[in-house]
Amino acid sequence: MTSYRRLLEDALDHVAFATTTCAGEERDLADRALDDGFDVLVAVGGDGTWSNVADRILASGRSDVALGILPSGTGNDFGRSLGFDPADPREAVRVLAAGHQRMVDVGRVDTPSVHEGVPSGLEPRHFLNLVGFGFDIAVIDAAAHARFLRGALLYKVTALQQLFRFPGIPVRLFGAGGAAREGLHLMLTVCNGRYFGGGFPIAPNATLDDGVLHTCSILDASPLTRLRLFNLAERGRHVTSERVAVLADRGFRLDFDAPPRFEVDGEVRRAPEPSMSLSVMPGALAVVAPAR
Predict the structure, then answer these.
(1) Among 2.40.37.10, 2.60.200.40, 3.40.50.970, 3.90.550.10, what is the CATH number of 110-282?
(2) Which residues pair with 123 in a beta bridge?
(3) Considering the entire predicted model, what is its pTM?
(4) N or C, which end of the chain is more exposed by having fewer CB within 10 Å?
(5) Quick one: pLDDT at residue 23?
(6) Contact 276, 260 (CB under 8 A)
(7) b/e string for 87-114 if b means 16 or more Cβ within 10 A?
(8) Would you give the end-to-end CA distance of the chain in angstroms?
(9) Is residue 74 predicted with pLDDT exceeding 80?
(10) Where are the domains of the chain?
(11) Sorting pLDDT into bands at 50, 70 and 90, what band is 169?
(12) Of 246, 176, 166, which Cα lies nearest the Cα of 204?
């Protein structure tokens, strides 16, 4: 944050700073900035931080507010889809100063859920990048207890561990257009963006302005087949497997055997019921991003 603060002060004439002191506090800071009339809210962090700020912008109903992002998190996958280089903070600030805005789609978990670990009530939740179930959650749980690792390496190491431990999760998937798929899953992601886990192209054909969500449904398999799928996913070639299906639609319903734990842009939530609905909001958010 210190480095970004200095770069921002050099690049912009007027900038106000606020710093979080605990997890999730960026939501309160975003609400305060919206009440104070700011029309660009810049979030320094990764997918979870950006998602929390975007959720508050969208919940406010203010269409005149843009989201600015500065990569400094674990995954940075939403930023990667926009063309940001997580390793180049100076370029990220130059993009912000240039002020080019791009309208992007936003996903929405229509079924109210609760954040795990940060006290809040049941609420619908917007997402920028993806919602994940199954193996995804097992990796996040394992990563929370990992030491000395971060970024893409953290995901790869903990994911390799869980390939041999995760028991699978039964899911029934229904698309708004009628497509359906069910069975014991290794993982199911509902994607707005292309990338996942620090650069894995989990939904290779997804773009942030195509007006649909992409589900990547990966049926369970033996540990060795799981390992093969993991290696293929690093290059986006997992979609060639008969265990994998990618469906694109305006919305989806997911049915589970029990109320699921799931992740929204890297942050874990709980649903109160075993059925969930998700939908896309085309072109709903302005983001300060690199010009195409």
Answers:
(1) 2.60.200.40
(2) 113
(3) 0.92
(4) C
(5) 83
(6) yes
(7) eebeebbebbeeeebbebbbbbbebebb
(8) 27
(9) no
(10) 2-104, 110-282
(11) very high
(12) 246
Asked if 152 contacts 80 with a C-beta cutoff of 8 angstroms, the reply is no
3-state helix vs strand vs coil in the chain, percent to 5: 30, 35, 35
Tokens of 290: 């690199």
Q: Is the dihedral of CA 258, 118, 148, 237 positive or negative?
A: positive
- Tell me: pLDDT of 155 over 80: no
pLDDT in tens, 190-249: 999 999 988 899 999 999 999 999 999 999 999 999 999 989 999 999 999 999 999 999
Tens digits of per-residue pLDDT, 18-61? 999 988 899 999 999 999 999 999 999 999 999 999 999 999 99
Over residues 229-239, the pLDDT tens digits come to 989 999 999 99
Class of domain 2-104: alpha beta
> In terms of C-beta density within 10 A (0-12 exposed, 13-18 middle, 19 or more buried), how is residue 255 classed?
middle
Taking CA atoms, 179 is separated from 176, 182, 208, in Å, by: 7, 11, 22
Confidence at residue 117, expressed as pLDDT on a 0 to 100 scale = 75
Cα 82 to Cα 101: distance, rounded to the nearest angstrom: 11
DSSP-derived 3-state class of residue 274: coil
Residues in the chain: 292
Sequence-distant (6+) residues with CB within 8 A of 1 are 19, 44, 72
CA angle 238/135/163 to nearest 5° reads: 75
